[in-house]
Amino acid sequence: MANLERVAIDGQKPDLTIMLDLDPVVGLERAASRGEAADRYEKEKLALHEERRNAFLAIAKAEPDRCAVVDAGQSQSNGELFGHDDQEAFLIRTWASGRMHHALLFSGPQGIGKATLAFRFARHILANPVFDAGSMDDTASDALLRRQIAVGAHPQVLHLTRPFDPKTQKFKTQLTVEETRRISNFLSFTVPGNGWRIVIVDPVNDMNASAANALLKNLEEPTPRTLFILIAQSQGRILPTIRSRCLQLRFEPLNVASMHHAIESLHLEGNRDAASLVAYANGSPRRAAMLAEGGALEVISAADAVLASRKFEGAAALKIGDALTSREAEPLFFLLCEHLLQRLAQFSTGAALSGLTSANRLAALHSEVSNKLAITRGYNLDKRQFLLETMRELHDGVVESGARHA
Q1: Could you list the residue ranges that cross the membrane (predicted)?
Q2: pLDDT tens, residue by residue, 95-117
Q3: Would you state the pLDDT for residue 201?
Q4: CA distance 29 to 76
Q5: Are the beta carbons of 123 and 153 closer than 8 angstroms?
Q6: Is-contact 137 96, C-beta < 8 A?
Q7: What is d(CA 25, CA 281) in angstroms, rounded to the nearest whole number?
């Protein structure tokens, strides 16, 4: 990697090098969405992409004053939206009416298209500054506009997300107040032609208390021709005062037809069964893309088999845990954790609908596991031990409650 850097810049180190960091799963998804055959590099194993990514991040860590890492894994340049026709139509009508609310709150599960629509709408506003009822068609967007937004270089768009920490080589677990304070600086500049300024916070759930309060001040005193788009995975972790100042749009997981369309458009089938991807993706194209890589379907199927067994299969659970302890397997680890929480939520709902008294216990177990996962992630604790304990707790809790057959 050092040789590659030396060839690329010929020994001349600029004052600032901006590295666009992209999750390989997202990058391969975007490459597939071009509709062209994969090139040699794109056909490489996921582990190789992860290794190269970590090598570049190591360079950034070694020279933090010279290298700035920007999260390019969001939806700034991904224009293809699957489903959510009603939400898009509502935004177009609202924009055309000339009575645009100053703050929008997009809420719904992760990976279903909220950020994609947020950036599509931003491009639509900047490409059509005069209130217009035209379609939100990305093919009409200026190529330069798309590129500027994609790399965070457009002067009228501010995208706030969790910053990269060069010490840990990871993105921080919270969106900090230092990031939120950038809003005031962004809004202090004059926009040519009396244009719009757009602030996208993704996700607002990641804000700590100080950051949320700093955002609230901007929402309470909005500047003219400024639009805030807040993206949330759950409304429960957002300050009520922030929610009350936003026009709320709810996003639901994609239906089966939209998921099949997404899987076909992103070329995710490969040697996978599209029906299996749809079944496990829970209405999320992003989740489907992750399931299509690195044996994810096999791991999740194995975990489901452990939960379905009459007696807890410790050896099988241990095998799953051993396979997910490496840094390269971290995306799959969190994908499995998300799946286990969803399964627990399904068991809890089923028990409640069947009138079982165990519903409250299962709901409490869901909260306990969510908290343990946050601690494991925040403090980089033993993932293997977390998975073993979690699968045992889920298995025993479901068996004792009788909710499996509810």
Answers
A1: none
A2: 989 889 999 999 999 999 999 99
A3: 97
A4: 14
A5: no
A6: no
A7: 15
